[in-house]
UniProtKB/TrEMBL annotation:
Keywords, ordered alphabetically: Cytoplasm, DNA replication, DNA-binding, DNA-directed DNA polymerase, Nucleotidyltransferase, Transferase
Job of this protein: Confers DNA tethering and processivity to DNA polymerases and other proteins. Acts as a clamp, forming a ring around DNA (a reaction catalyzed by the clamp-loading complex) which diffuses in an ATP-independent manner freely and bidirectionally along dsDNA. Initially characterized for its ability to contact the catalytic subunit of DNA polymerase III (Pol III), a complex, multichain enzyme responsible for most of the replicative synthesis in bacteria; Pol III exhibits 3'-5' exonuclease proofreading activity.
Domain DNA polymerase III beta sliding clamp C-terminal per the UniProt entry, residue ranges: 250-371
Annotated Gene Ontology cellular component terms: cytoplasm; DNA polymerase III complex
SUPFAM superfamilies to which the protein is assigned, alphabetical: DNA clamp
Localisation: Cytoplasm
InterPro entries: DNA_clamp_sf, DNA_polIII_beta, DNA_polIII_beta_C, DNA_polIII_beta_cen, DNA_polIII_beta_N
UniProt subunit comment: Forms a ring-shaped head-to-tail homodimer around DNA.
Origin species: Sutterella seckii
Name by which UniProt lists this protein: Beta sliding clamp
PANTHER family from the UniProt entry: BETA SLIDING CLAMP (PTHR30478:SF0), DNA POLYMERASE III SUBUNIT BETA (PTHR30478)
Ranges that cross the membrane: none
Amino acid sequence: MKLIASPVENLFKPVKTVSGIVERNQSLPVISNILIEQSDESVTFSTTDLDIQIRTSAPVGVSGTEGTFTVSAQKASEILAALRPLDVVEIDVGEDGLAAFSVPGGRFTVQTLPPEDFPIIKTQTPVSSFTLPAKTLRYLLTMTSFAMAAKDIRYYLMGVLLVAQGSKLRAVATDTHRLAYCEAVVDGMMQDEKVEAIVPRKTVRELMRILPEDDSPVVVNLGDTQICFKFGNVEFISKLIEGKFPDYQRVMPTEDTNPQCVRLNREELLLALRRVQILTNEKFHGMRWLFKEGQLLIQGNNAEQEEASQTVHAPWTWGELDIGFNLLYMIELLTNLKNSEVDFHFAPTPKSVLVTMPESSSFRYLIMPMRI
């Protein structure tokens, strides 16, 4: 029975939206598939990895028919990507359990799996709900997610903490060697009680992939163990990470504890760091910063006794400061910032360094020094 008939580009968009969370070699084969539910022209596409579920819809169905089937997310994506965007693709599902993708001059026949085996994550009754622009949520995640832990037995570090309080939404991420904090005022939001949720790393990455880059509204529903994002025709459900996030307010330096502030040109500093990176130890990524009056000397070396150094202008007026940092952490920070200048706040004795943007208190970054 022919269930779908559509230009390739109209079908590829929803398939691409939901396919990002699908992983290969699943222990449960059906979750490597997309659940496709068709009724007349409306078609709903769903995927899950048992922790995350994405659903979206598109008017690509055949009027007067209905059906439900699952098909490999990887194969469907690769087939559609190989076709011309304006070609019309038709999908027929036969009683033999095969789905046929037909286009002018070609046909692809792939296996399906029973749709009744596909697991569905049910939405929880929210304990809190608010709406914000998509670009605001994207900005908060972009400015903090690079500081998430990649692998850590402390699972609560492998995600971004969202804190809704009053009219502000905060995002915080840390791997204990660095911490990124960003906040935004959300018009119309008023959370009388503070609400917190640790959003998993994979969810954060996927949200950043599919969130619009405009002011489209995103409805955020927070449950006890679940968070749901709704934007456009997308519903994104994810489990939350349970655990106690570190007290970021207690460890964050202030301009009082770190009074020695130097303003550096972001692009000039980033260029110098990338040059030093060429000959920096690929395992430890350590670099040395030596401040003298009016300049910053950046040095790096490797196990082969090779060295690189770069000097950048720095309006430094205090005594000499010799301090080490993780080069990759600093490059990631400067790459995500887009302003022309960056403020570095140092304490009189080497300890955690505060990084801010000039004339802005919405973003703060803590980076721990390392022994070189």
